[in-house]
Amino acid sequence: MGGLSIWHLLILAGVVLVVFGGRGKVSDLMGDFGKGIKSFKQGMSEDETKKDASMADSAPPLSAPTPDMAPKTPINQG
């Protein structure tokens, strides 16, 4: 117990090959992950602009208040 067996060494060699081997598999994975996040953010911002545009089209025009829109509270005359 306490020493490294052949299985420990094989697992360690496999991890080293995955991390440092080939043409940078981990960096390729992280690049794809970053592209996915960027695409997600772009899709969310497109949804927000569509939502803002549809809300602007459906909003009623602003107008000055009329006397019937005035508050109906009595004024205290001290």
Question: What would your notes on this structure say?
Answer:
The chain has 78 residues and is mostly helical. Helix content is 63%, strand content 0%. The protein has two helices and no strands.
SSE arrangement, N to C: HH
What is the general shape? elongated
- Level of helix content? 55-70%
Averaging pLDDT over every residue, what do you get?
76
The N- and C-terminal alpha carbons lie at a distance of 93 Å
Radius of gyration: 32 Å
Write the layout of secondary structure elements.
Layout (H helix, E strand, L loop, with lengths): L5 H15 L4 H34 L20
Briefly say what this structure is.
The chain is mainly alpha-helical and about 80 residues long. The protein has two helices and no strands. It has helices spanning about 5-20, 25-60.
Q: What tags apply to this protein structure?
A:
mainly alpha, about 80 residues
